């Protein structure tokens, strides 16, 4: 298939930030229990704001800038994100929710008052009410895979 005919995932994953075909990504996640829960959330843009143009060029620039950036192997920046203690973006590496936050900031959906390095996966879950700009909203998350029974996530 042509690149523009297939869905891709752009994610911060070991060893580096990469663009992966969605089918390949799902197969890899299904094979490992490291990802006990896999969920997705879609964005909702209200028709009244349809004239607002998102900065998709900013997203493309971000993808070019960060492709190949090392995944944050040391937990320090991820732990600091829980308390919003990070003071810089991309301290030589990047973690998953930092990449998501930076992407939303670059297209104009998320305020830049909070550093992208101070967002955690919880900030993008249905359990949080992370405010988006331009009247955008998140739909509730849809779980593609739930945690196995008997685990903390699965009850």
UniProtKB/TrEMBL annotation:
Database matches in PANTHER family: PX DOMAIN-CONTAINING PROTEIN (PTHR47112)
The protein's name in its UniProt record: Uncharacterized protein
